[in-house]
Amino acid sequence: xxxxxxxxxxxxxxxxxxxxxxxxxxxxxxxxxxxxxxxxxxxxxxxxxxxxxxxxxxxxxxxxxxx
Length: 67
Fold this sequence. Notes:
Elements: H1 5-43
C-alpha cells in the first residue's frame, strides 16, 4: 500500500512528538517523586548512633569493657 509521503512524514513527526512528551512527563514525575521523598527524608533524618533526645538509642551497641 503506497501512502502519500507527506502524510507518512507527518505521522512520523507526530509520533516523535508524542514520544518526547511522554518522556518529559515521566522525567517530571520522577523529579517530583524524588523531591517529595527528599523532603520526607530531610524532615525525618536522624543521625544514626547519636541520641535524638532523652530516650536510649535502639541501635545495637558494642559492649565496652569497664576500666
